[in-house]
Write a structure and sequence with these properties.
alpha/beta, 8-stranded parallel barrel
């Protein structure tokens, strides 16, 4: 688990989303997370069903945000839970052998608790001001200097310009939405992120 962690944007049109996701997968990413805060659970399930086999075809781990039920229903490689998305230990027991990620915001203590509950990686952020979550708590880059025994993921306001500072600080994964999926050349942008980990 090292490199660009592509997180899908809130797109209602599944065909458009799948086209963009395929460009990212072709360029090569460490993981793909399906996330959509706008759609109903039924609609999210339909989108996830489209994207899961795409990711599988490229050999990229497919993670579902906030929803263990949807992750299991589409045969995802795992789930990522935020602070309000349910009990990590319960999710761990439902996802044996699969990836479990946890949002830990700006808290080292939350990260340590998440790892004890079975998280395979922990995410800190927002590391920079984020267009997706403008009111999000800011996480200091010093958090990435901690050796926690699992990959540390940075999220929030990441761009190609500020990403090198995160890699230098110790982030294993860079979770990116806007700077990736809104780029004029999505595949080119993904490839440029990949170079940061060479």
């Amino acid at each position: 688990m090292r490199g660009l962690y592509a997180i899908t944007p809130d797109t209602a049109d599944t065909a458009t989303l799948a086209r963009k996701v395929e460009q990212v997968l072709k360029a090569g990413v460490a993981m793909l997370q399906y996330r959509n805060k706008m759609l109903s659970k039924d609609q999210r399930l339909l989108q996830a069903k489209e994207l899961a086999p795409l990711a599988r075809g490229y050999g990229v781990p497919f993670i579902v945000n906030d929803d263990v039920d949807v992750a299991l229903a589409v045969g995802a490689n795992g789930a990522h839970l935020g602070g309000e998305d349910g009990d990590l230990a319960a999710a761990r027991s439902r996802l044996p052998g699969r990836i479990l990620g946890a949002s830990c915001y700006d808290s080292l203590a939350k990260a340590q608790a998440a790892i004890r509950a079975g998280a395979n990686y922990v995410a800190f952020g927002s590391v920079f001001p984020s267009p997706t979550k403008p009111g999000a708590v800011r996480a200091p880059l010093t958090l990435f200097g901690n050796e926690l025994g699992v990959p540390l993921c940075a999220i929030g306001g990441i761009t190609l310009e500020n990403a090198p500072a995160l890699v230098a600080a110790g982030a294993s994964l860079l979770a990116v939405i806007s700077d990736l999926f809104e780029a004029p050349d999505i595949a080119g942008r993904a490839a440029a992120y990949r170079q940061l980990f060479r």
